[in-house]
Every structure is written in C-alpha cells, then in structure tokens.
Write a sequence for this structure.
C-alpha cells in the first residue's frame, strides 16, 4: 500500500482498476491517473459485465470526483428547526460528528429504545455494501434496516421470476442477447436506462434478432425495435397471457423441455393440491403420470411423463400441470386481450406465432418493476411463456454468476416495522421485509411503534419515496437524522449529522461477486487517487461510530459482519476480519475475503477482477442443475406450477394475484383514465441519468436533452387541450389531489391516454448547482403495497392535466 | 501510410451520449473542469467536438426516432485548411485535419468554411478547436475515445486503405455514405443511415 501511494503521486501515467459506481450495474473500469489526478476512465477490456465499454455516466465519473458540490467535511445541524434547508448545517470534525452519533445511540440503548433506530439504503448500499450496514444494525440491536430498496425497485419483478426459476433479481438472470433470435421487451428500456451489461449485448447484436417492444411510450429501446406495441398501461399481463394462449393452442411449445426441466407434468388433484411424495435432499418430490409405465411415479423415475390428460391416482382424479395451464389459458385469446390491452388481436396472434416458432425466443428479464398491483403475476407469466418455448436456463434467459450462488433471501425479524406493517397490509411476502413504506406510519403515528432516529445510506427519500412530500414533513418529526452521502441531495437537507463519503475513485473496497454478468467472478475497487476532501469510506464511518460506542460493540460488529457475509464459521472469520481491518483498513477486509475464496489477491488488485467460471462453464452447470432438480425452487425444477404461490393461496385464500399457474389480475388503474381529461401516468429513465443520483453531475446534467425532462403528452390530445410545447402544465393525482408542475412536450411518441415523465429529476436542494428542471415524480404516488411482494405500485396513478 | 476514417452506424446508435462524454473527458478535460468551476451556464454553453442530435419523425403510432452525429469529417479536400491564413489548420500525412493552436489567430474563416459545423472557437485555450480523431491515442495503438467506449459498436475506426479493416469493409458494401458530397470535400467519415427495420 505504501508503494502504491507513492506511485500515485508520481508523474507516470497508470491505470488503476475500479468498478463504476455511476449506476448499480457495476461495470469494470480502468482509471487513468497521472500526477495524482484522475484523467480518464476506460472500460476494463477484461470486464465480463461491460465488455470494455462504458456509457456517458461512466465517462462522466471524472467530473464526480472534482464536482465542487460534493460534501467535503462532516456537517452538524445545531437547530432541528432549520431542517429542510442546507442552512443551519455547519462544518464539524469527524470526532465531533461521530461522537454526536454515538452519544445519541448510547442514550437510546441505555433507555431500551434502540428499536427506534431505522436504517435505509439506496442503490449504493444495494447488493454491495448491504452486509456492512446490516451488521451495523444487528450490532446496535435494531431490527429496522433495509439495504436494498426492494419495494421501490425490484422485488415484485424478482419474485415473479423466482416463482418459476428460484431467482429473479436483475443481478441473477440475463437474456442471452448473444444468441437470442426473438425478443419481447415489456416494462423495460435497456437502451435508455441503467445497464450497459444489457445494452452493450443487445446493442451489438441489433439486427440479429427481432425486437418487439411493448411500451405505452416510444422509448430509446422502442426506437431500435422492429415492432413497437404501444400497450395500455398496466395490461402487459393480458398481452403475455394471450401469447401463452397462442403458443399453447397452436402447439408451438417445447414439450421435451417441459418434461425435462419443469414441473409441467406434475399431477394436481381436483382440489388443486399437487400429488407429492415427501421431501428428499431439501426438494419436494412430486408425482407425474408415466405414459410408459401407465402409473404415477416420481418425476425422476418416469420414462415419458404425460403433459396432458386426466388420470386416476389412488382413487383421486388428477391432471398434469400443463393440462391445467392449457385449460386456464383457453379463455385468454388474442381477441380477449385486445379488449384489455388495446393491441389488435391479429398483432398479438402474429407475435405469439413468431415467438413460438423462433428459437431461442425470450421475454426480456426486466430490471425494475414495482409498478402495478399485478407486477408479480406479470413477470410470472413472462417466465411461464419463456418456459413454454424452452427459453429458460438452457437458452433464452440464463442464470448469472450471482444467480448461481444465490440462496433464498432470509426472513427479517418479526419485530421490524417493515414486517409488521407489511403483514397488516396483507402483503403475502411481508416476512422478507422489503415494505419500508411502513416507516411513514411509524414516524407520524407511532404505529406499530415509534421510530425516532434515521440513518440514510445514500438514499434520497425526499425524492424517491412514494408520497415524497409527506416524507419531507415526516423527516422533520424525527429526533435525529444521520445522512451518509457524497452530495447534499434533498434528503441530506433533513439531516442533523451529515457524514461525507469518499467517491468510488478515491477508495479501496471489499470483495464483491460480479453481478449481472454471465460468468461467476469477483471484483473490487482500488483507489485511483487519494481522497480529495475530509471524507471516509462507509465501512470506516460505521466502524468509527461503533468504536465510540465502546469495545463491546466494536467486537460484536466483526462477528455480525462475518455472519452477514455468509461465513460458514463466523466465529473463526470475525477475528481475521478485525485484525486485517486494523492493519490495512477496508483493503484488509478484501484480502481476508479473497483468501477465503482462494483468490489470488495480487491479481485481483492489479486487474480488478477474477473470473472463476466463464459463461460456457456456468451455463452447462446451470443446465445440469435444472435437469437434476437442483434449482432454488421448492421442487428444484422450473415451476410451471408454483409452490411458493400455492402456499400463499393456502394461507390467504385464492386471489388471481397469486394463482399458482397463471391468471389475469387487474391493475388498480384499469380503465380509470379517459384519455381526454385524465391519463395514466407512466415514468421512465433517460440514458444519461441513474435514478435521481446523477442529476447534479455537471456534464450529464447538460447532456440530457430538455425534452426528456418534460411531460410527454400525445400531440393530438395536447392540441385538444390547447397545450403547446413548453407550456407549464399541472399534473394532478385524481385520487389524492397532490399536484406537480411540469413543462409540456406534445409528441407522437406516447399513447393518447398516457402521460410520460422521467422520474430522475425534480431536485430542489439549493446546495446542488448543476441540476435542471424536471418532475418530482413521487409527489404523485401514495403509500401502497402490492398484495404479493409489497411493491410500491409506482404507476398506479391517474392524473388530470391542467394548464397553469 | 494509413488513411484514417470513421464509420458511424446510425442503426446501432442508441443515443446514449457515451461518445460525447468520452470526447470531453479525453480531449477537453481541463476546459471542462474550468467550466464546472464557472457553473451551469458555462456548462450549457460548453462546446463539443462531437455531439448527437435526436430527430423524431412520423405520427402516432407510426413513429421513428433517429440520432445524427456531428464530428469533423477529416475531409480529403478540407476547405478549412485552404482558407486558413496562417497555416494553423493543416492536414497530416495520414489525412487527419488538425489545428496548430500556436498559429491560430481566431479569425474563424475555417468555422465559416466548414460545411459540417465541426469547428468552434474555444475561449479556454484561445484557439479554434475540433476533433483530432484522437490521433494521440491512435499513434499509441489505441482507438479514438468515442469509438473505444461506444457500447453498441456504432462508431468504427480504421485505415480506409486497408481492405481488411472494419471501416473499409463497411464502406465497400455501399451501405455507408458521406454527407454533403456535392461540396467536393471528400469526407472520411461515413454514415450508415437509419432504417426502420420491420
């Protein structure tokens, strides 16, 4: 390390490996450094995530380090009355700031009120630093911590997929863009949003596959599509069900795949219960009808499992799952779907036939989607459709390196506000603790109990939490708000203690599994330059607080961290982590992690990454696992009949939102907008922005075209309302009355009944000098939770449009 | 001697702006940092050696969105060079058109003469500035910054005299065309024009 620091001061140009942190997709990069300054960022040519490429945001990382708006020293607010403004915060030493945090925590602990502490993480905590934050929460003893904003981000989508293949987060599954020949994209804009990992692969292969984009607005992805289908918002599920109908009724499914990889042959009794034969090796064994032996046997023992028909087993009538699917989807004809989606039946039939006849074909895996009440079932239908044409795991949709080592997400404490609130809302998966919406009630009404102290880990609640203006008021009611961030974003303005983090180019990081890429590998960050300001690494900040709390807490942290990192023997790993950290800081943690995985530390630190299994090896391993019944699903196979959803049904009664096979389930906004005065509100991203976190990046801010900050309204409709380009308009939520102002962009790129805005803007912090106008989207959403996954239902919004 | 050229496949361009940002970071970093210190207005006015414009066509639902790329065409017959009174604008042996800022007097004749709008007065360095095809990178065996970063491979770069190069192969198919041929400038940047694929 001393050597390296010396080199960084030298005049020679050198490349230092790092991981891009301008968005969560974590592309591998090389940072060109000279004279202790960042000169340029390049994609790391060895990086399997981005294949040596980076986007505009990645290129703009240079200017993040030198952005004068950065938080440069700890800040402390002496009077809570000034919350909501940057005024009232004064510079403080680290010692004073950490002492202030620790003494507040000591007080809560001594009074038995530590449960009142809650911690929320934004995407920078997600996937990477979450274990460090959760170990912190466990150490001080609060059950209230979410490092991953599952309810706002991915959980409904991920859960929908996982009901079929056991995993489903965007880090866990990936379309095989290199080989796919027919791709249907719903609720996704991979050319205009976050991920180079998808955009680079899909983009380089443009022309090799037919691209069908289903979206109410003409996105950057639609611009590259062979076919754009402007569907009625919230009805993608009906479209997918009709595709299933076509594939099944035209006999275009892959029966060999269904027999080998899925539980489509599983027998289900008339009462809806699967015929099972106990549990072996942690997997549910089920019966199928073997046509060769004319009897019911375990799937493994069957020679030719039946997919269709009705059989009598032990005196009970039973049908294979595929038969049930076929009967179920018979009603979901293209003609039926036309009435719901507004997409002509002939077009749906054409897409269904093309999809069924082209191999490999896939429905894109998506990324973000907590949008509608039916989000879970929508993605389940996507997975089932992929399964029908054999497009899961063996081709079409692959499991990534991170997906291959995934374990089922653990339940959170029953004491947590998230879980109690989610359970009371009737959220089936409340035990997973993603429903952070509940903290609003806890602040405002002390329900289920009072929370008083908030740690914000790079999360801009004041902009991104549903009903954001209500959150702004709620934040003022807390006793203490501690924010850890790199910029004085809107949420930071509500903090009493602000702890500034170093940017990604100034720091060494722990070891991370390489997410998103079709390989199994590990990566890290090596500091390219010394920190420019008096900032610290998140881990150093947490440890700093714990040291002030006392030796007992400090000791406990390493044990909790070892557990959170998934150590087999946490008691053995904990002292190693502590010693290494004391010697070398975060770098030391990384070395212990690397050694535990038998990775060559020197190579890791010089190249930034180590690939353990390449894509070919990973895929053949996943195929074997699927065939052997060793996926993460309860049966270990692709589940055309979901045991997870069936368990919800058993517990909560039948609802189409958790049909164990598939079913049409309505979004809340269904048929609620007239397209004359009232409109479905949909949001999206722009390629130069990452949620709200890049709006103050000097160059990205001005590289974003102004029309992408405006509210898109159909040109004809705008004419009828007398609205011209650039007019100020007001969008009013017809249910809540909450309103935002926007600049109108009349355009042919959006449906007549739909208004589109980007959710990346709307910043009001006076401490950010490079932000421009835009819509604070979440003023218009309200506190909701979908009944399955607890998603925030961020597009269940109908607005009225008024001229200002 | 190589004859460098570029092909921009507008069918592959997704309008992400990576090329624009890469160029700023590679070639105009010091100017950019200065503009950052001056604030938002300076950033709004910050000149770019290459940029993208978005074009929307058609009426709902039969619409298209296209991106066009401005960049110096490195013409074989560059009007910017012939009008330059001081010899600041010149062409290298490889045919790359450059500006020697020590000779530039800022008369802007070349800005007027360029049919492509590829040149501008850079007040930070007090000279006319323009794309150099990243010749400093190319001489070191690397690709221009914009080409190297393009996620979809829409920008290609290479030797037009080498029939095996990617740019030569694309140009040879006839699918890549030069802009404003009638000007007689003989550009070495070629565009594969956008087609709505159905």
């Amino acid at each position: 390390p001393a050597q390296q620091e010396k080199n960084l001061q030298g005049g020679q140009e050198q490349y230092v490996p790092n991981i891009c942190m301008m968005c969560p997709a974590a592309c591998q990069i090389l940072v060109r450094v000279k004279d202790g300054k960042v000169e340029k960022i390049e994609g790391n040519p060895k990086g399997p995530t981005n294949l040596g490429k980076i986007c505009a945001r990645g290129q703009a990382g240079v200017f993040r380090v030198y952005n004068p708006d950065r938080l440069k020293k700890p800040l402390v607010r002496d009077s809570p009355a000034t919350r909501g403004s940057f005024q009232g915060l004064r510079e403080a030493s680290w010692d004073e700031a950490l002492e202030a945090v620790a003494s507040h925590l000591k007080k809560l602990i001594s009074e038995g009120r530590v449960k009142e502490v809650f911690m929320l993480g934004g995407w920078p905590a997600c996937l990477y630093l979450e274990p460090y934050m959760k170990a912190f929460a466990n150490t001080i003893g609060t059950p209230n911590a979410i490092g991953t904003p599952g309810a706002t981000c991915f959980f409904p989508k991920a859960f929908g997929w996982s009901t079929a293949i056991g995993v489903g987060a965007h880090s866990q599954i990936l379309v095989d863009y290199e080989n796919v020949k027919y791709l249907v994209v719903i609720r996704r804009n991979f050319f205009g949003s976050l991920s180079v990992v998808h955009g680079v692969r899909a983009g380089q292969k443009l022309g090799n596959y037919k691209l069908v984009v289903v979206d109410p607005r003409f996105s950057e992805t639609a611009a590259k599509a062979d076919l754009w289908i402007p569907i009625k918002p919230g009805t993608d599920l009906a479209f997918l069900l009709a595709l299933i109908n076509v594939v099944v009724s035209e006999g275009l499914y892959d029966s060999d795949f269904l027999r080998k990889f899925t539980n489509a042959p599983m027998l289900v009794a008339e009462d809806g219960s699967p015929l099972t034969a106990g549990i072996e090796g942690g997997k549910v064994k089920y019966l199928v009808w073997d046509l060769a032996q004319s009897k019911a046997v375990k799937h493994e023992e069957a020679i030719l499992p039946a997919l269709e028909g009705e059989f009598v087993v032990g005196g009970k009538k039973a049908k294979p799952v595929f038969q049930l699917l076929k009967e179920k989807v018979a009603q979901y004809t293209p003609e039926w779907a036309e009435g719901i989606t507004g997409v002509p039946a002939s077009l749906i039939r054409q897409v269904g036939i093309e999809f069924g006849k082209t191999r490999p074909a896939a429905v894109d895996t998506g990324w973000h989607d907590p949008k509608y009440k039916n989000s879970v079932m929508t993605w389940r239908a996507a997975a089932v459709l992929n399964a029908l044409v054999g497009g899961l795991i063996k081709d079409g949709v692959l499991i990534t390196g991170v997906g291959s080592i995934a374990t089922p997400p653990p339940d959170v404490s029953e004491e947590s506000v998230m879980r109690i609130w989610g359970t009371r809302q009737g959220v089936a998966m409340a035990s997973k603790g993603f429903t952070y919406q509940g903290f609003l009630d806890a602040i405002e009404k002390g329900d289920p109990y009072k929370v008083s102290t908030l740690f914000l880990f790079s999360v801009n609640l004041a902009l991104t939490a549903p009903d954001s203006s209500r959150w702004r008021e709620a934040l003022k009611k807390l006793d203490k708000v501690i924010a850890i961030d790199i910029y004085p974003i809107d949420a930071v303005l509500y903090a009493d203690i602000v702890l500034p983090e170093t940017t990604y180019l100034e720091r060494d990081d722990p070891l991370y599994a390489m997410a998103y890429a079709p390989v199994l590998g590990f990566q890290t960050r090596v500091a390219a330059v010394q920190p420019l300001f008096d900032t610290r690494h998140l881990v150093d900040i947490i440890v700093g607080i714990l040291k002030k709390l006392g030796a007992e807490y400090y000791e406990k942290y390493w044990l909790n961290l070892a557990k959170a990192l998934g150590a087999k023997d946490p008691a053995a790993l904990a002292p190693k982590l502590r010693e290494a950290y004391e010697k070398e800081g975060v770098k030391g943690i990384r070395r212990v992690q690397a050694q535990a995985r038998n990775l060559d530390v020197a190579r890791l630190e010089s190249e930034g990454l180590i690939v353990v299994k390449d894509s070919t090896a990973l895929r053949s391993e996943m195929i074997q696992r699927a065939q052997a019944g060793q996926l993460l699903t309860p049966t270990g196979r692709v589940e055309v009949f979901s045991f997870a959803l069936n368990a919800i049904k058993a517990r909560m009664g039948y609802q189409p939102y958790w049909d164990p096979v598939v079913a049409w389930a309505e979004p809340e906004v269904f048929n609620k907008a007239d397209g004359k005065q009232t409109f479905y509100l949909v949001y999206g991203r722009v390629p130069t922005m990452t949620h709200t976190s890049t709006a103050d990046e000097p160059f990205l801010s001005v590289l974003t075209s102004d029309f992408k900050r405006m509210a898109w309204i159909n040109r004809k409709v705008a004419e009828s309302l007398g609205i011209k380009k650039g007019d100020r308009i007001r969008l009013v939520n017809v249910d809540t009355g909450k309103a935002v102002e926007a600049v109108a962009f009349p355009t042919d790129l959006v449906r007549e009944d739909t208004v589109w805005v980007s959710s990346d803007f709307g910043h009001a912090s006076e401490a950010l000098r490079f932000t421009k106008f835009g819509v604070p989207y979440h003023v218009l959403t309200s506190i909701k939770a979908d009944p399955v996954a607890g998603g925030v239902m961020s597009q269940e919004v109908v607005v009225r449009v008024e001229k200002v | 001697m190589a004859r460098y050229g570029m092909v921009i496949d507008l069918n592959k361009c997704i309008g992400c702006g990576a090329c624009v940002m890469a160029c700023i970071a590679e070639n105009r970093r010091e100017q950019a940092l200065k503009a950052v210190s001056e604030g938002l207005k300076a950033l709004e006015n910050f000149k770019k050696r290459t940029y993208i414009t978005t074009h929307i066509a058609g009426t709902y639902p039969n619409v298209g969105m296209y991106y066009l790329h401005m960049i110096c065409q490195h013409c074989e017959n560059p009007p910017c060079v012939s009008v330059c009174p001081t010899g600041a604008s010149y062409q290298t042996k490889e045919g790359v058109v450059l500006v020697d800022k020590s000779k530039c007097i800022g008369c802007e004749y070349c800005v007027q003469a360029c049919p492509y709008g590829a040149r501008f007065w850079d007040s930070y360095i007090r000279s006319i500035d323009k794309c150099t095809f990243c010749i400093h990178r190319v001489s070191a065996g690397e690709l221009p910054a914009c080409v190297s970063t393009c996620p979809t491979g829409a920008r290609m770069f290479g030797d037009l005299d080498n029939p095996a190069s990617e740019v030569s192969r694309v140009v040879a198919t006839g699918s890549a065309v030069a802009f404003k041929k009638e000007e007689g400038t003989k550009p070495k940047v070629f565009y594969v024009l956008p087609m709505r694929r159905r």
Summary: The beta strands of chain B are 4-9, 51-59, 62-70, 89-91, 97-99, 120-122, 127-129, 155-159, 176-177, 189-192. Residues 18-27 of chain B form the longest helix (10 residues). The interface with chain A takes residues 11-12, 14-18, 20-22, 24-26, 29, 32-33, 35-37, 39-40, 43-44, 46, 54, 56, 58-61, 63-66, 145, 148-154, 197-198 of chain B (CB under 8 Å). Chain B is about 25% helix and 25% strand.
